[in-house]
Specification:
The complex is a heterodimer. Chain A is α/β, with parallel strands linked by helices. Chain A is built from 9 helices and 10 strands. Chain A has helices at residues 40-47, 70-76, 93-104, 120-129, 145-157, 175-192, 203-209, 227-232, 234-244, and strands spanning 2-11, 14-24, 29-33, 55-60, 63-64, 78-81, 163-167, 195-199, 212-217, 220-225. In chain A, helix 3 packs across helix 4. Chain B is mainly α. Chain B has a domain at 29-234. Chain B is globular. Classes of the chains: A alpha/beta, B mainly alpha. The interface between A and B is medium-sized, with 39 and 29 residues.
């Protein structure tokens, strides 16, 4: 579904992403791991059009998407959450999801029909599926950090993506919130067969839910494979897992 | 219950405004008409600045172009008056589109500064082009259709058009488009990531704001019978901006309240002093320190915290 081939992105003289290769098949859950500053977020920005690659290819369903604008890539079927919570803070929980649904349905240029109640059923269904239904009328800025992150996933889901990209979905969450978030990601994958690409610092969590793992160090792909393959890789052990003393 | 209360809150002032020319002397009716069209102007600016989050610092230009468009059509073309009243706002919308296309690539303050510069260019042309725009003399004694030429006629025309436009913009901010521009204001990155073409929506919002600003300008022709270049000078843009700040940028009716307060204050202050700028500056300072959300914003916040306590 998604194929990244030797992509490079540098800022000034610094090569943040330097030869990344990544393959995500339909229905898979793929994790990207790597130490801080390995270029994971930069890679995700390249995939969703927030940055354009200097060289290399990014193919989504066989078509080049590198360098397209974010809104075009979204319409092709990739939506995402951000590392730092990224929602519409002055809008209610309901409205956050609603405008994402309306955007998908290309109704954003309707200027005289009242928005109230539009797409209500679908928005309610999405909010129920992420357990935010009871807070639907709350101004989203007032939500707890964990709920905001979940809301952002809900907003990303409202675009009916084929590929969902999550940049550190559990960052800053309390343990029980993390648990809830993992269950949500699992459920999405199992129930709707959604393809998910995420990055995460919590290694235990990564090995728990990812089908395959890609390891990045200093901007480059070290290895991509199953959890077992990644564990066995000596380069990974010395470069990354070794320093955290796990596995 | 709440809905009917809201309706009453809307209908009462409207009824008062309809009755006003029968109760108040002629000068006050004239002032009320100026208040109305300025309220429309401030509300149109708020569409761009409060709802879309664009630093629209040159809004008076669209007001001026709307006024000049209508005035020139009335004085120099043989076209019927309704055409003139359409040409003004459409010219303002067209200018807004052109300026928007140039400015939209810049963000925040840079957008605002470039808009002031381009607006000043338009002002300079109007100010100097004696043979066409009348230069700094402006255009006076603009002929109007009989129905709206009398003080009462012009007042009711202004009231009707303002009410219609304020209603139309209210519909717009509550439409899908209105929600999306608020989303863009809050978080353009997120908006793009859900598939919204941010610039296109910003541009559309600018054109709508320019159009309604132009309508306000056309109304000025009706009430004042004349136009002059100062009405599109950048200092007046800032005055309209202060109206939005004073009333509350994040409330729909805030700018309307702000415009009323500023216009009334200017009229009655100018009787006693010529230092209007000093008063305006003091108001601005006080608003920034004590009312960062504006007058209506303060009330909105009060009622919000009350509800929170109730819950």
């Amino acid at each position: 579904m998604l194929r990244v081939e030797s992509v490079v992105k540098s800022f000034g003289g610094f090569k943040a992403v330097d030869g990344v290769n990544l393959h995500v098949g339909a229905g898979e859950i793929v994790a990207v791991i790597g130490p801080n500053g390995a270029g994971k977020t930069t890679l995700f920005h390249l995939l969703t059009g927030h940055l354009s690659p200097d060289s290399g290819r990014i193919l989504f369903k066989g078509k080049e998407i590198g360098g397209l604008s974010p809104h075009v890539i979204c319409r092709r079927g990739i939506t995402r959450s951000f590392q730092v919570v990224n929602i519409f803070p002055r809008l209610s929980v309901f409205e956050n999801v609603q405008i994402a649904v309306l955007s998908r349905e290309r109704k954003t240029f309707r200027i005289f029909s009242p928005v109230k109640g539009m797409a209500e059923e679908e928005v309610h269904r999405i909010l129920r599926s992420v357990a935010l239904f009871d807070q639907r009328d709350v101004e989203s800025d007032l939500l707890s950090h964990g709920d905001k992150k979940v809301l952002e996933i809900a907003v990303a889901l409202s675009g009916n993506p084929e590929l969902l990209i999550l940049d550190e979905p559990t960052a800053g969450m309390a343990p029980e919130e993390t648990e809830r978030c993992i269950r949500l990601i699992r459920k999405l994958s199992e129930e709707s067969g959604l393809t998910i690409l995420f990055c995460e610092h919590d290694i235990a969590l990564v090995f728990e839910i990812a089908n395959r793992i890609m390891v990045m160090v200093r901007g480059a792909t070290v290895v991509q494979g199953s959890g077992e393959e990644v564990r066995r890789n000596s380069e990974v052990q010395s470069a990354y897992l070794g320093e955290s003393g796990e596995c | 219950m709440r809905r009917s209360a809201g309706l009453l809150l809307l209908l009462l002032p409207l009824a008062a405004l309809v009755a006003l020319p029968h109760v108040l002397p002629r000068f006050h009716t004239y002032v009320a008409a100026i208040v109305l069209l300025t309220a429309l102007l401030a509300t149109s600016l708020n569409l761009a600045i409060g709802y879309t989050g664009l630093y629209q610092f040159g809004h008076a230009v669209f007001y001026g172009v709307g006024a000049y468009g209508t005035a020139l059509m009335l004085t120099r073309s043989g076209m019927p008056a309704p055409v003139a009243f359409l040409v003004g706002p459409l010219a303002a919308a067209a200018l807004s589109l052109v300026m928007g296309l140039i400015c939209i690539r810049l963000s925040k303050l840079y957008f605002g500064m470039l808009q002031i510069s381009l607006g000043s260019l338009v002002w300079a042309v109007v100010y100097r082009w004696y043979s066409f725009t009348g230069g700094d003399d402006g255009i006076h004694g603009i002929p109007l259709p009989d129905a709206i030429a009398s003080p009462k006629g012009s007042y009711y025309f202004t009231l009707a058009v303002t009410a219609l436009c304020v209603f139309a913009m209210h519909r717009i901010v509550r439409s899908p488009f209105g929600k999306v521009i608020q989303g863009i204001r809050d978080n353009p990155v997120r908006a793009a990531a859900i598939g919204v073409d941010v610039r296109l929506h910003q541009l559309a919002s600018l054109v709508i704001a320019g159009f309604f600003g132009g309508v306000a300008g056309s109304l000025f022709v009706v009430v004042e019978n004349s136009v002059f270049p100062d009405m599109m000078f950048w200092t007046f843009s800032l005055e309209v901006l202060i109206m939005c700040l004073l009333g509350g940028m994040y409330t729909y009716f805030g700018p309307l309240v702000g415009a009323s307060l500023i216009v009334l204050l200017r009229v009655f202050a100018s009787v006693h002093t010529q230092y209007w700028g000093l008063i305006l500056g003091t108001i601005l300072t006080l608003v920034i320190i004590f009312l960062p959300d504006g007058v209506l914003g303060l009330f909105a916040r009060r009622s919000l915290t009350k509800e929170d306590r109730g819950a």
